[in-house]
Amino acid sequence: MALEELKPAEGTAGDKALTTMTAEEQIMAQYQQALGGFTGTENFRPQDLRIPRVKIVQPTAKEGNAGTFLHNYGEEYSSMMIALVKTELNRIYWNPDPTQEEALCRSYDGLNPDSSIESPPCDRCTAKKRNKAGIFVDVPVCPMAIWKESEKDPRKKERPQCDEVIAWLCIDLDSMQAFWTQFSGSGIGPARDYQSRFALGGKPLFVDAVEMSLKAVTVPQKHYVPVFKNPRRLRAMELAKVLPMVVALKEATNKRNTELEEEVATDAVEETAEPKPAMPGFMAEEEAQSKKAKKA
User: Fold this and answer.
1) Residue 92's beta-bridge partner residues?
2) Is pLDDT at 25 greater than 70 in this prediction?
3) For range 179-205, the mean pLDDT
4) Alpha-carbon distance 266 to 87, whole Å?
5) How far apart are CA 155 and CA 149, in angstroms?
6) CB–CB of 248/208 below 8 Å?
7) Residue 284 pLDDT grade (very low, low, confident, very high; cuts 50, 70, 90)
8) What ranges make up the beta strands (E) of the chain?
9) pTM of the entire structure?
10) What is the SS3 assignment for 214?
11) Whole-angstrom distance, CA of residue 101 vs CA of residue 193
12) What is the three-class DSSP state of 34?
């Protein structure tokens, strides 16, 4: 079907709607009838959805420019306009040896070690305890997750080796691409404050847009923490794009995404180390005969 055949007649409501769209959106709208909703992802399974990651580049990072957001496809951003899809509370205990980039233990619910961990330091991360107000709260019980008195200064507490992590699944509103990002340490406070406004207001996370940027903090040493500013309601055109993505992403988890990433990393190592497979017998005989014929 030709593009001209799909254009609405002049003066119609469809013609007026097209004038409010970008050139790309106009072309897509004109082909919707012919496409019939086809996207090419119809046979893609949710469990195969490997979502990219965006990380905060700290001064100690091996790649990227400090104080930026680094997409694992290589792009760097000083700020991003995002919509938040879902949030998870995780924990991760990294190997204290800086040369070993591996997790010795991790939790994807913030409560219990993941089943993939063979020998966790403790059989649970937290336990329910009543606070001074009489409310039951989750309190760390794993020795790697407890804040302890500093040996150098008893008035201070030492950060535990097992980090509490807030994982966000977001949509970049400029590219309309989904990504996971994580906050730990002093970055947890700003992230928790932003997501709390939705719970307190009784509204879904994904109806607002917010600008995510970074600011430098110098205590105890220089590092960067997230800043969320200029929140606003999603515009109708944005909401029309975001909501179908939320439907597709609502079952996604940081756990499954990590598993897919590790599978890819393992496959890459195996492909590098794997010797060339032996040639089947009949092919070896044919090759030997061919070499003899050439010599003759």
Assistant:
1) 106, 163
2) yes
3) 95
4) 27
5) 7
6) no
7) low
8) 54-56, 69-71, 76-77, 79-94, 103-107, 126-130, 136-140, 148-149, 157-158, 162-172, 177-184, 208-217, 223-233
9) 0.77
10) strand
11) 30
12) helix
The model's pLDDT over 79-112, given as tens digits with 9 standing for 90+, comes to 999 999 999 999 999 998 878 878 999 999 999 9
- Yes or no: say if 251 and 245 are a contact pair by the CB < 8 Å rule: no
Helix ranges restricted to H, the chain: 3-6, 13-18, 23-35, 188-201, 236-249, 254-273, 281-295
Question: CB atoms < 10 A from the CB of 18, how many?
Answer: 16
Amino acid at 291: K
Instruction: Using the Cα atoms of residue 140, residue 142, residue 143 and residue 144 in order, give the sign of their dihedral.
Output: negative
Only one residue has tokens 């965006």, namely 54
Q: Which of 254, 294, 257, 220 lies closest to 91, judged by CA?
A: 254
Q: How far is CA 222 from the centre of its chain?
A: 25
Whether residue 161 has pLDDT greater than 60 = yes
Amino acid at 270: E
b/e map 52-90, b = 16+ CB within 10 Å: bbbbbbbeeeeebeebbbbbeeeeebeebbbbbbbbbbb
Which is more confident, 16 or 136? 136
